[in-house]
UniProtKB/TrEMBL annotation:
Alphabetical list of Pfam families matching this protein: DUF374, Glycos_transf_N
Any one cellular-component term (Gene Ontology): plasma membrane
The protein, known as: 3-deoxy-D-manno-octulosonic acid transferase
Residues of the DUF374 domain: 81-149
Enzyme class: transferase
Source organism per UniProt: Acetobacter lovaniensis
Active site: E308 (proton acceptor)
UniProt-listed PANTHER family: 3-DEOXY-D-MANNO-OCTULOSONIC ACID TRANSFERASE, MITOCHONDRIAL-RELATED (PTHR42755:SF1), 3-DEOXY-MANNO-OCTULOSONATE CYTIDYLYLTRANSFERASE (PTHR42755)
Domain 3-deoxy-D-manno-octulosonic-acid transferase N-terminal: 281-456
GO biological process, one term: lipid A biosynthetic process
Length: 663
């Protein structure tokens, strides 16, 4: 008896070592394989248990060792998913159950009764039925545990019929050795490529006496296996050919992000000390969430700065109108944009967070917490790490108002592999213009909607009617010139232009609205201590300038002004321009400097409605002309307003396309 106990202990020790070794190797091989998941949209709902959906997942016994990779992918989509796998009661089945158990893959032991011998099939059927009814996925190998190879038994169909659930057929392939077993099992090798392919959900007929030809599970599974093997072979061939272009640059980018991660928190704290980050929210830039994830479906919008945030406002509003059950997460990169979101996106189903920096671990942390059903990026926000993480999770990603400037295009052409890897998996891209669409297409964005600029579809900037009336009473009949979104260096030019204008209109009031409100104090000090809106100071009759260094009131100042100059466009600053449609929608005539490359198409659309000025003399001459000719000013304002509101239906059309991605 003592010898037997010792022998039993030794066998248990060897078994534990074997199970641990198998688990370690299998985890290493599967986690170093680059997986692609081709999941049918309807099957995605069941595989990720959206809204409590469950299904019977079937795959051939030969790919049993590959399936933990599918489970890891499913868990990333929905951490609340539970899985039960049917295994046989023999020693092989128990080893498999012990290997996968630490990965939260729980087993149900049992198989069909043969030759009158009970193998626990009836009890296993009852447990699987209970699991499906309580929200668990159930996975079955319909040709297991002993074959014949690739011939389905009736268990999967019978179980699905019993509980009224669909069957999801799966195929898989990867770089592997084929074992000399009855099923020719895949034994995965590390550092390869792999593919999982799902078919559409199959529903068995209620009448077990009738066989639906469309169900034919065996044919579906064989076809999916062939598809997976072909895709995996093509991916492997492409991987070898494209390795210098595709794999290396993206790995270098991710590696640089990982190396910089230890010092980036110090950089963020330094930015906070300069007022460029919000105290108490710096950790959001590292992927830490500031609030719990709301329950239900979540749609993620990312807009880097103020212009992008304002452009997606009508799109967010359209999504909220069309779906009363989703929550929208809006991420931004700048403090000013976060303020705009707080002011303009105020809604009980809108959550704001700062976008994490493009560091692999931070992006994964962000996605693990928020687990969105789809992501909407705006304009030129293309970050390889976060997009790669989205694509790896099979998360539908779209780009709206896609912009690709000439300089950005030249940059991405130098690393075409990285660009192609980012853009090719996009569900679709909606570019601003045909030129942007062509550039994005040449870099890999093949699925595109018709071009159109969301900035021409945005609603007018908000204006508080009572505040407007009060300010008009303070200003009286004075002519008003507005210089909006100005940058460093432009205020001096505007001050000299205002001096020239006052020779014709001595009571002129010039309102200066800096793009960055924190510059307000410095600007006011250089304009003879001009009153500042941020200090609730109002202009008196003696004040030639009024510095309006606040956020969210730009529409108010455009309504006050007789004419407006749009900054970041004069030769004295880096340039690029700002959105001219904002004043145009409010009936304000517009002038700009020559440097408007960031909004070139918008200015081309406005054409003769906008005056281009080079310096203080030409700016002053234009303002004097507009003040002297109210009829011409009214005609130009009307023409510009018509152009700026041409795409009024675009947000609803795009919202419909986006919501289709999350069913």
């Amino acid at each position: 008896m003592a010898v037997a106990r010792v022998w039993k202990s030794v066998r248990g020790l060897f078994r534990s070592i074997a199970v641990g070794a198998i688990r370690a190797y299998l985890g290493f091989a599967l986690r170093t394989t680059r997986w692609t998941f081709r999941i049918d949209p309807q099957s995605y709902l069941y595989l990720t248990s959206q809204e409590g959906r469950t299904a019977v997942v079937v795959f051939w016994h030969e790919v049993l060792l590959l399936t933990p990779a599918l489970w890891w992918w499913v868990e990333r989509q929905n951490p609340a998913v539970h899985l039960r796998v049917l295994v046989s009661r023999n020693s092989d089945g128990r080893v498999i159950a012990d290997v996968v158990a630490p990965w939260r893959i729980w087993s149900i032991a049992g198989s069909s009764n043969t030759r009158g011998k009970s193998k626990g099939g009836a009890a296993a059927m009852l447990r699987m039925r209970a699991s499906l009814l309580h929200g668990c996925l159930v996975a079955i190998t319909p040709d297991g545990p002993c074959g014949p190879r690739r011939q389905t038994q009736q268990g999967a169909e019978a179980l699905a019929r019993l509980v009224g659930k669909p069957v999801i057929p799966m195929g898989a392939s990867c770089r592997a050795i084929r074992l000399k077993s009855w099923d020719k099992m895949f034994f995965p090798l590390p550092f390869g490529r792999g593919v999982f392919v799902s078919g559409a959900p199959l529903w068995p007929t209620p009448d077990c006496q009738k066989q639906d030809p469309a169900f034919n599970l065996q044919t579906h599974m064989n076809n999916l296996m062939e598809q997976a093997q072909v895709e995996q072979q093509h991916a492997t061939a492409g991987h070898i050919a494209l390795r210098p272009q595709v794999t290396c640059p993206s790995q270098i980018w991710n590696g640089v992000g990982a190396l910089l991660a230890p010092v980036l928190p110090l950089y963020l704290r330094w930015r906070q000390s300069k007022g460029k980050e919000v105290a108490g929210r710096v950790r959001e830039k590292m992927g830490f969430a500031a609030c719990p994830r709301p329950s239900g479906k979540l749609l993620w919008f990312h807009a880097a700065s103020v212009g992008e945030a304002l452009s997606i406002l009508p799109l967010v509003q359209a999504c909220l109108r069309q779906n009363a059950h989703i929550t929208i997460l809006v991420t931004t990169g700048t403090v000013t944009a976060s303020t705009i979101v707080a002011q303009r996106f105020a809604h009980d189903r809108v959550v704001h967070q700062f976008m994490p920096l493009d560091v692999p671990r931070w992006c994964q942390r962000f996605l693990n917490h928020w687990a969105p059903q789809a992501a909407v990026f705006t304009e030129s926000e293309l970050w390889p790490t976060v997009l790669g993480a989205c694509h790896a999770r099979n998360l539908p990603v779209v780009l709206v108002n896609g912009r690709m400037s000439a300089s950005s295009f030249r940059f991405w052409q130098r690393v075409p592999g990285v660009a192609q890897r980012m853009l090719a998996p996009f569900a679709w891209v909606s570019a601003r213009t045909e030129e942007d669409a062509q550039r994005l297409r040449s870099l890999g964005a093949n699925s595109q909607l018709s071009p159109g600029d969301l900035k021409t579809a945005a609603p007018p900037l908000p204006v508080d009617a009572q505040v407007l009336a009060d300010l008009r009473a303070v200003i009286g009949e004075r002519p008003v010139f507005v210089a909006a979104s100005t940058h460093a260096g432009e205020e001096e030019v505007i001050a000299r232009a205002a001096h020239i204008i006052r020779q014709t209109y001595p009571n002129l009031l010039s309102i200066i609205v800096p793009r960055h409100p924190e510059r307000g104090a410095d600007i006011a000090s250089r304009l003879n201590s001009a009153p500042r809106r941020a200090q609730n100071a109002l202009p008196t009759e003696r004040d030639a300038f009024w510095v309006c260094d606040t956020l969210g009131e730009l529409g108010l100042f455009f309504k006050l002004g007789d004419c407006a100059f749009i900054g970041n466009s004069l030769p004295v600053c880096p340039g690029g321009g700002h959105n001219p449609f904002e004043p145009a929608r409010l009936g304000c005539v517009v002038a700009t400097g020559p440097r408007v490359q960031n909004f070139e198409e918008a200015y081309q659309a406005l054409h003769e409605c906008v005056q281009v000025v080079q310096d203080e003399q030409s700016l002053a001459a234009w303002v004097v002309r507009m003040l002297s000719c109210p009829e011409e000013r009214a005609v130009l304002a009307h023409q510009a307003q018509a152009v700026a509101t041409v795409n009024a239906t675009m947000p609803d059309d795009l919202a419909h396309q986006i919501l289709e991605l999350i069913w």
